[in-house]
Amino acid sequence: MVDIRKFTNELDQLDKALAAAKRILITAPGAADGDSIGSQLALRRMLLAKLPKLEVRILNDEPLPERYLFLPDVEHVDTPETYANKKLDSKFDVAFIVDGGIDRAGRVREIFEKSGTTVFIDHHAVSCDFAYGIRFVEPIASSTTELMYHLSQTALFKTPVDRDFSQQIYLGLIFDTGFFRHSNTTPEVMELAAKLLRTGFDFTRVGERGMLERTFASLRLLSDTLSRADRRADGKIIFSTLSQANLNTFGATDDDREGIIDHLFLTHGITVALLFFELPAGRTKVSFRSQGDVDVAKFARSLTERGGGHQKAAGANLGMTLEAAVPFVLEKLETLLAQKVPYARSV
Q1: How many Å apart are CA 103 and CA 346, to the nearest integer?
Q2: For residues 143 and 123, is the Cβ–Cβ distance under 8 A?
Q3: Rounded to two decimals, what is the model's pTM?
Q4: What averages of pLDDT result for each successive group of 10 residues across the chain (347 residues)?
Q5: 319: which residues sit within 8 A by CB, 6+ positions away?
C-alpha cells in the first residue's frame, strides 16, 4: 500500500519551491507511454489546481504517439521544435521528470538541469543516479499515475478528481498493470480504479484507444516479427529482432512495435522474453519480460547504466549495433539462467 506520509519532508520542500515559482517544466524519458503521458497530464492539472497563475509547460524529446492524442490536455504537450516555434523562455523555476530518469530525456535534459529546483517522481525500483533536488520514488506503486494520484490528494495539491483527471490516472494504471493482469495489481489499485470509474469517464474508450487500437502497419509488423522468433536455453528464453529495415518494409513507425513483446512473453514454457529493436546511430533497445525469478530490471541495469524498470518488465538502451547486441545479451542471460537462483526478486 502506498503510504504518502513517508514524503512529508519532500512535500514541504516542494511547497516552498512552488510558492516562489512562476514557470514550471514537466518532462519524461523518450517516447511517452500510457503511464508517462498520464502522469505528465495529471501533474499539470495538480499544479494548476494549486496555483492557477503558474505557467506550466510539458516538453518531451519525442512527439506523442497518435494513440494518446484523444486524452484531455494533450494540446499542451510540446517537443523542442514546437516549443521553439512559440518563442517562449526556456528557463524554468521548477522542473519535474516523471516515470523514468533524466538520462533518457534527450534534448530536454539540458533545459531540465538548468532549472532552479529539479523534482523526480517515479515508481521504478531501478533507475539512473542523478542529484535531483526533490525525489518522490515509491516502488510499491503499480504505476507512476498511482503515486501521482496519492500526491494529488495531499494538503499540498487538493486536486479535484473529475472525469478528465480520472482518465489520465486510469490510463497509467491499465498500462503498467496490463489491464490489471500483472503481479503489481493490488487490491488498492482495483479500489482506486473503481473510484476513478465513478466519475463517469468513458473507460472503454480509454482502454481501447490507449492500449489496444493498432494501425494496419503494426499488424503486419507484428506478424513478421513473431515469424522470426527463436528460443534459447532449452526454451526458457524467447526473442526476436526488429530492424529499421523491418519498419520501412511495412511503412511502420516506432510506436507500431508497442505490444509485440507481450506476444512473445505469453508463450508457454518461457522464463524471459526479449525484443531487440534497432535504433538509429548504431544503438539497440532491448525490452525484457520475466515470468520467473529473474529480476529483469537488475539484469538490464547490469548491462548498461541506461537500463532498468520493473522486476518483471524492463528495458535497456545499448550502445552497440543490433547484430552485436543479440549475442551479447543472450550469452549473459543464458549464463544467468544457469545459476541456481538468478537475480531472485526481492519481496
Answers
A1: 25
A2: yes
A3: 0.85
A4: 94 97 94 93 97 96 92 96 91 96 89 96 79 94 97 97 98 94 93 98 95 91 97 96 96 89 92 96 95 89 86 91 97 90 51
A5: 282, 283, 304
